[in-house]
Amino acid sequence: MTPEDRIHALGIWQGSIEISPISGGITNRNYLVSDAVARCVVRLGTDIPIHHISRQNELAASHAAHAAGISPAVIHHSPGVLVLDYIEARALSPEDIRAPETLARVIPLVRACHHDIARHFRGQAMIFWVFHVIRDYAASLKESASPYLPLLPALIARAETLEQAAGPFEIAFGHNDLLAANFLDDGKRLWLIDWDYAGFNTPLFDLGGLASNNEFPDAAERSMLESYFDRPLTDDLSRRYAAMKCASLLRETLWSMISEIHSTIDFDYAAYTAENLARFERAYQAFEQDR
Fold first, then answer.
1. In this predicted model, what pLDDT tens digit does every residue of 97-136 receive, in sequence order?
2. Domain with 102 in it
3. What is the CB-side half-sphere exposure of residue 56 using CA atoms within 13 A?
4. Which of 78, 178, 244, 257 has its CA 20 to 30 A from that of 105?
5. Among 67, 85, 103, which residue terminates a domain?
6. What CATH number corresponds to the domain at position 56?
7. Contacts of 194 (CB under 8 A, 6+ apart)
């Protein structure tokens, strides 16, 4: 059955429908669907155990994020299908996120995610512990005889160094995938979408991911941290943050290495691996210089 056939067969539509693919998804296939009364976003994707993605967890997080006023409403769900209310908005770019006026709007939204979603989350909740994910990815790469095997011992040793340096840890409910495209601007407010990796984590992982995914300069990182925590940046917080930023980049690198082997989505994962590995190396060198 084609994706279009699956969407037609959902039985929730009023009259005939129009289906348009939405580009950009690298763990789901996304479609804009219009019927006689409304427009919706349909996300097609099953569990991806190798990436620790549970669609039941994504559904629960989506419900909680909507209840917290952060994300669009869930209209329908069934195995492998999530239908969300469509928001007329544009996805942000890294350039947008880096703009001081936009970053000033992004930080309260990230803080609301960390503080508010757990109050609305129902049922079993996941923990997204980046260092466990890194170790598990490394084991899967070994099992798959990945061409990146020679790199793994040094990368895992660095991950262990980062885990020691990043503590002690505060715990909050994290989004854990703060790419620019997961922020939507409707002209009045921002929304945060795509809860594939949601789970309890340290806030520093999201902040490190926000900075690394969007290539913040040093001044923007300091501004982000001081705004989020509402206090001057200390040496201790700077050290722990730098470690989690490196861990975020390492996880993204290994995620892409795994995706080169297992993903069926048309995306240049090899180039993405090379890009993130280079960014991790630069961040880790800066981390070591500042220790």
1. 999 999 999 999 999 999 999 999 999 999 999 999 999 9
2. 90-290
3. 6
4. 244
5. 85
6. 3.30.200.20
7. 177, 182
